Please model this.
Amino acid sequence: MAVRTSKFRHIFGDRNVKSYNGVPISKNAHEQDFCSVNPKFVAVVAEQIGGGAFFVMKTDKIGGIDPASCKISKHNGAVYDIRWNPFNDNLIGSACDDGLIRLWNITDEKGVESNHSPVQVLKGHGKRVGGLMWHPSADNILASSSYDNTIKLWNAETAQQVSELSSFTNQITDMSFTADGSQIGTTCKDKKLRVFDSHTGEIVVVSTGHDNMKVSRLRMLKDGNILTAGFSSMSSRCLRLYDPRNLTTKLEELPIDSATGSLFPYYDPDLNLVYIAGKVNANIKFFELDGGSVYYLNQYNSGDAQRGIGMMPKRGLDSNINEVARAYKLNVAKKLVNVIPLKVSRQSKSFAEDLYVDTAGYTPALTAEQFIAGENSLPKIVSFLELRAANSTSKGFTASNSNGGDPKEVETLKAEIAALKAAVSEKAATIEAKSSRIEELEAENKDLSEELDKVKDEIAELQKNGVDSD
Model:
């Protein structure tokens, strides 16, 4: 593999990494990375018998955790994916085996509360939901992929379906929005690479992707090309670059290795870097995209296999140490989440403007209604320093239509209401019976009183007669 001369050639990761300890990470074989990160919170899918759960931990409190105090468990089946909203660091979506998508509001002050309930539930898929993805520039637009072989787009605020992508003949393995959100690229176990119009759900282009039925993934790049990570016909792992205008011919194929774990690509559109983590591998490889080619740079190695990794968004990085990425590596065997800063070595201590170019901010470019009306837009770009100074205030989320809530909770509440109504009815019948008895007793008492008065009158009359006769 050729080595490229680049300012990113010497990205390195700290050896003495900090970790969250005692995290029972899910051992489910589902092909997702099971971790989502933002500047406030780290979320990890949890191992749980019965139902499903995920942990939410604060990024500024690394160390041992109390699983009971940071676990969200109200799922009727296994959790398969979790994703933070890019414009609201307090809102996270979870995809579940029961076919539902739940949205959860995590406050800065309270974090995970006991008996934490979702603020919104999205219902419509016929089978388990395997993946989630938020729109890159429109507020509260969420995409979900399911084992019913569809992708649905939702207005998360109203719980209404916006559009549907179908035509899949097998399990959907990945999806990715274009930079302006106008299209969605997909990979599937039927080996097809498809690009859809995100508004209409119509296929824009389709062609054969990787030659192997093993899991492949993709990222829609800001230059319009498509990067895929998967397996060749010989079952070796590789990266491919496609021009969507001609998917039948790949621009480039870059072999990686012959390992068997699926590849997770993490794309940095600001620096044109791609980080590749292999499932059950112990390394993270770095690549640079330039001029329609993919170049290998370097890799981070460790001694422990990873189940998946979560990547910190650009707005959460530390420019004081020239951090260009931060990986949260899931170590199932040791119940650890390793925090790995990936840095560029610089002698100067001044702010590295070339490493921290303008990037996407907290403000969405479109409302959900504008996207639904057919509008597209690139994300709103701000300077890195401005973004870091702004930070994210604690946001709430108000569902304008809760779509009926969690079915399990609804049924429980209905049963409780029915029981209360039955109890009230029973009490009312008892009260009515007792009221009737009281009326009977009062009538009897009245009759007895009248009889007593008569007896008293008779006694008085007898006494009076007795006195006269004497």
